[in-house]
Known about the structure:
This protein is of the alpha/beta class. The protein has 19 helices and 22 strands. The strands form 5 sheets. The protein has a 7-stranded parallel sheet with strand order 3-4-2-5-6-1-7, sandwiched between helices. It has a 7-stranded parallel sheet with strand order 10-13-9-14-15-8-16, with helices on both faces. It has a 4-stranded antiparallel sheet with strand order 18-19-17-22. Strand 18 and strand 19 form a beta hairpin. Helix 2 (43-57) crosses helix 3 (71-87) and helix 15 crosses helix 16 (399-414). The longest helix is centred in the N-terminal third of the chain and has 17 residues, at 71-87.
Amino acid sequence: MNQNQSEPAAGTAPPQAEALETLSGAIERGRHLALIAAEGAGLAPLYAAAAVRDLAAGEPGGRAFVLTATVDRARRCATGIRAAAQAAGHDVVVVPGAAGGAVARAAILVGPPAVLLEGVRKGDIPAAALCTLVLDDVRALEPARAAVEAVVQASGDGARRIATTHARDAAFDELLERWLPRARRWPNELFAEPGTGEPEAGGAAGTSIAVASRATREGRLARLAELLHDLTRAGAAAALSVETAPDAIADVSAALSLAGLRVAGSEAAGTAETDDGETETGGDAGETDGGDAVRVGAWGEIDPAAHAVAFELPPAPEPLARAAAAERCYAVVDSLHERQLELTAFRAGLRVAPLAEPADPALMDDVAAFRAHVADALEQQDLASGALLLAPLIREHGAARVAAALAGLLRAADRPGGGEREAAPADAPPGDAATAPPDRSARRATRPTWTKVFVGVGKRDGAGPGDLVGAITGETSVAGGQIGRIDIRQNFTLVDIDSLAADAVVRGLDGSRIKGRQVVARLDREAR
């Protein structure tokens, strides 16, 4: 289990966070920190340790800010911080949502940057007292870049700064150069790679880990049992092993036994004391070479089998590196921890691939037709503009996940009743095309005419297609399909916009900020 998770399973304790253990010396020395890590790496305890240390070392009335991309992430982060903070006598609150008095009293404030910035500007939160400033997942904070920059500037030079990202890119490197030039960087092997936003998949001999994720522990235990049943049916029964946190062995073993699997404990973890005080080997331990027994043990305590499964997120790369020696390697993790698993696997020289999910027979009747529909689109559609539009999402989530999400949206839209517009009133005259809503298929078939919009930001500012698309969709109600070709020049950019939406885009972008620069937007002179 992970330190950031708000609902640990009863009877289990999380392992020591690798990030906190490795950086404890830097925390005690008050150094700035830069981390390539995601939820699951033990970031919340690290934030808590730094804030508690800085509040104790600073002046009375000190404050710590943790800037998060969403309120939901703020709540999870505050949950992970609270125990250590309260033990040191400090309150933690999430804003927005906390009463004004609670915000005024709390030493540690967690929330989106715009909300905290408003409190600073109103004088409700004294920025001069700030001793710790955390930028939690800089990549996710990018849409609020202007507010983040303002908070960093308001914090002054006396505050310790901690910045994390789930995927290193040029914007993160720029932030480090400007605000954390001498920060302690972790992990070193990820900072040694080019800052392209995604580590190259591959690693050692192309070895991959098939990953399934679920949002609840019960769901993960059920998926683990399904996977092991599938492997048993495939004839791999003589070599199945599961590695998990030491305190979760009994929990996992019991769940697999209830699912009808025969469980054999490892030699290192399968001993237990009986009511008579005798020591016995639990769960058919010692019978690991026969039948369909599944060996369950702590990370690193059982030899890799032909099919090895990591249950929950390992605290460090070493367990994954060992498991990769197996013929097939799998992982079942919390949905929130998928990104950190990818980073951990990369550090172990591995790559991650999604584990195929069981098909629902009720949904298979039109699968062939849907695939044919997609195949036709691959032949007939303009894929270049679509790839450009989706580039930021693909960099962040991977092509497979983005394609799966789009497929779900398309199928939902095509199903009867799936978001269809209201029919014309019953008393409307038949054939009255002026009042009837436009036909969905007709709207899909209609291609927009384009108008070029000039935007005063370009390559010199580090702007990319994702920055332009994000700014347009964030500042206006324009949909992604109304954005066409994006031509980024040295000092400016020309964007093709659906002519019906061009004026709205100009109004929304003009005076906004892209890559920290206030931009001018207007219709391109050549288009008028």
